[in-house]
Amino acid sequence: MTRQLIHYGYFRSSTSYRTRIALNLKNVPFQNVPVHLVRDGGEQHQEWYAALNPQKRVPSLVVEEDGRKDVLIQSPAILEWLEEVYPEPPLLPRDPIARAHCRAIAAVMGCDIHPLNNLSTLNLLKTSFGADQAAIDAWYTKWVLDGFGVIEELLGGTNFACGDMPTLADVYLVPQLYNARRYKIPLDAFSKILRAEQSCLALDAFQAASPERQADAA
């Protein structure tokens, strides 16, 4: 059985950042194809990419295997697929309660913070509601601080978000912190979150997935 993975993403997209981290943590080889979300009106809107992913968002993961080609979209679905097909090393704790706890931390970012701070949402605030950059920054900051406040309460005293090894929660957390720093959001109050981030960024899998290390960052 021969399986090839082609990952379509944008270097600064937090969802693409998540999937790159997970692929690296599981030591799964993949080809990365950049999709620039800003240049030329956004390459995600071009015909070739819309044919691949009708939602016109990143990431997309093309799975080619024994003559069959499937396209996976939405980072949560891609991450679940990776966990099912490449179970080692696991992204979720073994204990069912701990797994639910880990998923909840990831969901605070994936469901509560990210959708409200996505590029399409921020653009709509400007084009349809007349928000200036100061208002957009205030909007962004509110949802990040609200979400991080919850996550800080949920984290324990471990090196990573949910134990002594990186998990799904860390896969979501590191890209969200990267985005927060782009908007110059103060993070000093979140000592547990920053400890988990420091542990993650010491690992090759996270370093290789960082936006600055991607070919389209130039």
- The H-and-E topology, N to C, reads as EHEHEEHHHHHHH
Into which percent range does the helicity of residues fall?
40-55%
- The mean pLDDT is 96
Cα distance spanning the termini: 36 Å
Please give the largest β-sheet: 4 strands, mixed
Tell me the strand percentage band. 5-15%
Number of strands: 4
Radius of gyration: 17 Å
Structural class: alpha+beta
- Tell the overall outline: globular
Spatial sequence of strands, sheet with the most strands: 2-1-3-4
Oligomer: single chain
Distinct helical segment count: 9
Q: Any low-confidence stretches, pLDDT <50, length ≥5?
A: none
What report would you give on this structure?
This protein has 218 residues and is α+β, with helices and mostly antiparallel strands. 53% of the residues lie in helices and 11% in strands. A 4-stranded mixed beta sheet has the order 2-1-3-4, with helices on one face. The longest helix is centred in the middle third of the chain and has 22 residues, at 96-117. The radius of gyration is 17 Å and the shape is globular. The mean pLDDT is 96.
Protein traits:
4 strands; 9 helices; globular; 53% helix; alpha+beta; 218 residues; four-stranded mixed beta sheet
Indicate the topology.
Elements: E1 3-9, H1 14-25, E2 31-34, H2 47-52, E3 60-65, E4 68-73, H3 75-85, H4 96-117, H5 119-129, H6 133-154, H7 168-182, H8 191-201, H9 204-209
Parallel strand pairs: 1-2
Antiparallel strand pairs: 1-3, 3-4
Helix pairs in contact: 1-3, 1-7, 4-6, 4-7, 7-8
